[in-house]
Design a protein that fits this description.
The complex is a heterodimer. By secondary structure, chain A is an alpha/beta fold. In chain A, the strands form two sheets. In chain A, strands 6-2-1-7-8-10-9 form a seven-stranded mixed beta sheet. Chain B is α/β, with parallel strands linked by helices. Chain B has one domain: Rossmann fold, CATH 3.40.50. Helix content of chain B is about 35%, strand content about 20%. Chain B contains six helices and nine strands, in the order E-H-E-H-E-E-E-E-H-E-H-E-H-E-H. In chain B, the strands form two sheets. In chain B, strands 3-4-2-1-7-8-9 form a seven-stranded parallel beta sheet, sandwiched between helices. A two-stranded antiparallel sheet of chain B has the order 5-6. In chain B, helix 5 links the parallel strand 8 and strand 9. In chain B, helix 1 crosses helix 6 and helix 4 runs parallel beside helix 5. Chain B is globular. At the A-B interface, helix 1 and helix 2 of A face strand 6 and helix 3 of B.
């Protein structure tokens, strides 16, 4: 099996070199992403473009900015859906919304918003609770193409059936069809949900404090990072959150092993909602 | 020296996995990682059911958790599960693979990269072909491939696909798979004590 252990070693070297090339040339740092995740995304990209090897892929990524754009998309796909984990939303409605209602004005940061499905889920929930008009939602991602899609708010009609089911399970108070217009094979999200949303490019790996938020939502982003980068990003969130503010992570993510753990109380163990109790 | 066992199952998998784990003792030394296709909103029933029926400790895999002998790690619904070289778990909410999340192939590919020839891959009952390419990759990296005998499987399609694609080392009934795992773990122990 000598030949295949050679292949394995060769691939590891190629992956490290490509990560370095992308960082030095384009300024996107993937070195603290989970290794298995990086390998998988690279192999998906390799198959899509029918490259023979990661070295060949590196050549095209370095020399052709369009290929790089696609490479970036492939790394930030963050397949997302509206009201993913309906239980999270219904718990949020029950236990967090009442506190948010006591604030005259709300700043919400949705970090790693990808193509915006989660942003509009929050906008719908806030609207139904009478909070949207006094909220500003800052929705950020490092991928400008994803942000553009998010801003357009046009989604495939095939997704609507499952989103409607999610919405109902999430404790929706209206009919989901109130929030979009169907047009041929796509739906466009109602404009009123976009008014208080600001889309902005922000890279959690390399950029700094973003705003003084009452709520930060960052779901299923940290799972792709190693522990060191997770800790760095959680500290960034901590610096961007007011005392008494809430932090919502993905259901399989936790602050438990991070340096900010002792500053937070757990509001929902199951849905990973935390409250900042100490500065 | 085997470092991990990865198991993939779909339709009919709950009872197949139960039978497989039932005859393994609590001190079984090789960590076991399982992908069982489930609905995205499934509760913890599978983990509890399996845990009740084996001497091993069965738990849902946590992100970054380091896998250990004596434990069985079940992939949470609606995530992919991957293993890193340092024995830790990574989860992913990426697109579905073979119409599935979790996908057996995703686990098998990452485990084969991490453990090379020190990996045992097992494909059980199921009504699709997830796991077939992953098992092929495990074999390519020098690992051991085992498939449940399709004639015994509740849904024969998945083991049949794995046999055709991966040319596994062994095609066995569930109880024989358990026996073989015990033997392999004992060999592990012998090599350890040398």
């Amino acid at each position: 099996m000598k030949s295949d252990s050679d292949n394995t070693l060769r691939e590891k070297i190629e992956i490290d070199l490509l990560i370095e090339a992308v960082n030095r040339f384009y300024g996107y740092d993937f070195s603290d992403y989970s290794k298995a995740h990086i390998k998988r995304r690279m192999m998906v990209f390799l198959a899509k473009h029918r490259f023979e090897s990661i070295s060949e892929m590196q050549h095209h990524v370095l020399h052709n900015p369009q290929v790089f754009e696609d490479f970036l998309n492939n790394f930030s796909i963050n397949v997302t859906e509206m009201f993913r984990d309906p239980g999270f939303y219904s718990e949020f409605r029950k236990h967090i919304i009442p506190t948010l209602k006591t604030y005259p004005y709300l700043k919400i940061w949705i970090a790693g918003c990808a193509t915006g499905e989660e942003v509009y889920s929050f906008a719908i929930m806030l609207k139904e609770e009478g909070l949207l008009s006094r909220s500003t939602i800052y929705a950020t991602d490092f991928n400008s193409e994803a942000l553009q899609k998010a801003g357009k708010a046009i989604y495939s009609i095939d997704t609507i059936k499952s989103y409607t089911a999610n919405y109902q399970k999430a404790g929706g108070k209206s009919s989901f069809s109130d929030y979009y217009m169907a047009n041929y094979n796509s739906v466009i999200i109602d404009k009123s949900l976009k008014v208080n949303v600001v889309f902005a490019e922000h890279n959690l790996v390399t950029d700094g404090v973003f705003t003084e938020a009452n709520l930060i939502v960052c779901r299923n982003v940290l799972i792709y990072f190693n522990r060191e980068l997770q800790d760095k990003v959680l500290s960034l969130f901590n610096d961007s959150l007011i005392t008494g503010g809430f932090l919502a992570l993905g259901t399989k993510e936790t602050i438990q092993f991070s340096s900010i753990a002792n500053k937070y109380s757990t509001v929902s163990k199951e849905n990973k909602i935390y409250k900042k109790s100490i500065i | 020296m085997y470092k991990a066992v990865v198991i993939g199952a779909s339709a009919g998998g709950m009872y197949a996995i139960k039978t497989l784990l039932a005859s393994l003792p609590g001190n079984f030394r090789i960590p076991i990682i399982i992908v069982q296709h489930l609905a995205p909103d499934s509760d913890n029933y599978l983990v509890e059911f399996l845990d009740k029926n084996t001497g091993l400790t069965v738990k849902e895999a946590d992100e970054k958790e380091v896998v250990k002998g004596g434990f069985v790690y079940v992939c949470p619904p609606n995530y992919h599960i991957l293993v890193e070289e340092n024995m830790s778990i990574s989860l992913s909410a990426d697109e579905k693979v073979n119409y599935s999340r979790p996908s057996i192939d995703v686990l098998f590919y990452s485990a084969a990269d991490a453990f090379q020839e020190s990996l045992i891959g097992i494909v059980l009952t199921g009504a699709n072909d997830d796991g077939a390419r992953g098992l092929f990759y495990i074999k390519k990296k020098g690992g051991l491939g085992i498939v449940q005998n399709p004639s015994e499987a509740e849904s024969p399609q998945m083991p049949t696909a794995a046999i055709l694609e991966a040319n596994p080392d062994h095609v066995l009934e569930i109880r024989q798979i358990s026996k073989m795992l015990l033997q392999l773990a004992n060999q592990n122990q012998d090599k350890n004590s040398l």
